[in-house]
Amino acid sequence: MTLLLFFVILAVLVLVHEAGHFFVAKFFKIRVDEFGFGFPPRLFSVHRGETRYSFNLIPFGGFVKIFGEDQTEEIKDGEASRNFSRKHRGVQALVLVAGIVGNFLLAWILISAGFMVGLPAPAGEEWGLPVTDAALTVVEVLPDSPASRAGLRAGDTVISFSQNGRALENPSPDFASEFIAETKSGAIDVAVKRGTKLLSFSVEPSSEVLEGRPAIGIAMDMLGTVRLPIHRAVLEGAKTTVFLSVEVSRALALFIKDAFAGAADIKNLAGPVGIAGLVGDARAQGVAPLLSLTALISINLALINLIPFPALDGGRLLFVAIEAVRRKPIPAKIAQYANATGFFILFLFLVFITYHDIARLFN
């Protein structure tokens, strides 16, 4: 079920992105030769009008083949006006950026829907939103920590801690930390709610997690639910989309900077396998967390595509900008070579990240 849900989410994200290119190209009377889900080799396709709709073997992506985009197609009489490369640079930029805009709009819609359903949020007045049913929640589990080895996950709602007759029910973060720190030896029983399930874990604190005091390797906060009427949900959805976009941009810029310095940490990166695992975790927590995760993936997809790297929309936008300054097209062979090289590098990076995703499953 998780795998099926992952592919449904992936299909929605790809279709929204490529549909942005597709509809804006159609709006400006540019011919679209193919709308593909996944990357070749092609499994099957159907023709509707002038466009082929294809389903391809490699499911992690998609594409729209726009007439004239690679500048190699033969232009017959009467077709020049429908050729992408013959359009004004501003029109070309709008077609290229449309997919990115589509992903931002999708994130806005999903987050707004999440606010209507009820999104998890930290308790406290600093957010300015009405938070109800606040409870102690695990917000992070450190890798290779006692909590991680025991099976605790981010999103678990803590019901109680207990050990040798000592019990702490419905705790606050401070009292929970004190309870764990006062443990001299032996395991603590941690009762949690995960989705609709009640679970119990035996976790033995360690002094290696935090220097000088026993800890189990979790970060906790009081989280509740924010549920808003539609008009306010749409407004807060827009604000949250902007906030998340800024935060993801900062993280992405920092990663790229570290990558050039040879100090990038790939532990927090997730490829298709890792994202599928996150989808499974979000599904267990409910509809709202799943909507939030999908929105976050959509924002990541939009921002990654903005990077001025060949084969990405940002790379093509860079070429359009260079052509606008030069007032003449970049030679087709140079553009083709750059895009093919960029695609190959991105594919290798995907394989590399997927390998690490799978390796983490066996650690």
Number of strands: 11
User: What is the string of SSEs from the N terminus onward?
Assistant: HEEHEEHEEHEEEEEHHHHH
Broad structural category:
alpha+beta
Tell me, what's the shape? elongated
Low-confidence stretches: none
Report strand order across the widest sheet.
Answer: 6-5-7-8
- CA radius of gyration is 24 Å
Total number of domains: 2
Q: What oligomeric state is this?
A: single chain
Biggest sheet overview: 4 strands, antiparallel
Mean pLDDT: 86
- In DSSP terms (H or I, runs of 4 or more residues), the helix count works out at 9
Strand content: 15-25%
Span between N and C termini?
A: 24 Å
Measured as a percent range, the helix fraction is 40-55%
How would you describe this protein?
By secondary structure, the protein is an alpha+beta fold. It has two domains: 2-115 and 291-361, no CATH class; 127-226, Pdz3 Domain (Roll). It is 49% helix and 25% strand. The chain has helices at 2-27, 89-117, 146-150, 173-181, 230-260, 272-285, 287-306, 313-326, 332-361; strands spanning 32-48, 51-66, 119-122, 131-141, 157-163, 166-169, 188-194, 197-203, 206-210, 213-215, 218-226. The strands form four sheets. A four-stranded antiparallel sheet has the order 6-5-7-8. Strands 3-11-4 form a three-stranded antiparallel sheet. It has a two-stranded antiparallel sheet with strand order 1-2. The longest helix is centred in the C-terminal third of the chain and has 31 residues, at 230-260. The chain is elongated. The relative contact order is 0.13. The mean pLDDT is 86.
